[in-house]
Amino acid sequence: MSTSPGNSAPPQTPPLKGRGFDKPVTLAVIIGAHGIAGEVRLKVFADDLASYKSFNAGALTLKGLRSGSNGAIARFAEVADRNAAEALRGTELTVPRSALPPLGEGEYYHVDLLGLPAVSAQGKPLGQVIAVDNYGAGDVLEIERPADETGRSKRFMVPMRPEAVPEWDADRLVIAEAFIET
């Protein structure tokens, strides 16, 4: 979840209906086993992983979660020993988009922006959002333009700020003319 810095925030993304509403959202990834009793080490991408009990469409049930020296350490009901824990290395822990908490004014989930068509203020198609990065000064959208006649596509980046992205919804993202690269 992110908010745009500054005093004026872009409009809140309306609740999704249809496009991606139950798309799986990755909250953590298992990076290895911890100990011999089946615990796993996690790289966590969410603010509060403990509030979720079921992952991967019910395949994993969280029994316990604690901080470790290299991320979080979790215990799942379905993982009985170290061998089972090691077998899960690289597994993403997902929940449906609909399980995420509601958003406040000017907030958005990255998953809601990924894949959105980007258009100019006049409605001209510009491309598609393929990534949301943050280099410390706020979120930056990476837009990929359609391929040209040689099959190559160009990309450009746009800050997720009100002056650059004056509006967006579940169907499209509008980019202000001053931020469109040709």
Helix content: under 10%
Largest sheet: 6 strands, antiparallel
Q: Which class best fits the helix and strand makeup?
A: mainly beta
Share of β-strand residues:
35-45%
Count the DSSP helices: 2
Summarize the helix and strand pattern as letters. EEEEEEHEEHEEEEEE
Span between termini: 30 Å
* Spans where pLDDT lies below 50 across 5 or more residues: 1-18
Rg value = 19 Å
Major sheet: order of its strands? 4-5-6-3-2-7
Structure notes:
This protein has 2 helices and 14 strands. The protein is mostly beta strands and 182 residues long. The protein is elongated and about 60 Å long.
Q: What attributes does this structure have?
A:
182 residues, mainly beta, 6-stranded antiparallel sheet, 6-stranded mixed sheet, 2 helices, 14 strands, 5% helix, elongated, disordered N terminus
Write the layout of secondary structure elements.
Blueprint: E1 2-3, E2 24-34, E3 39-44, E4 54-55, E5 60-68, E6 71-76, H1 82-87, E7 92-96, E8 107-108, H2 110-113, E9 117-120, E10 125-134, E11 139-144, E12 155-159, E13 167-168, E14 173-175
Parallel strand pairs: 9-14
Antiparallel strand pairs: 1-8, 2-3, 2-7, 3-6, 4-5, 5-6, 9-10, 10-11, 11-12, 13-14
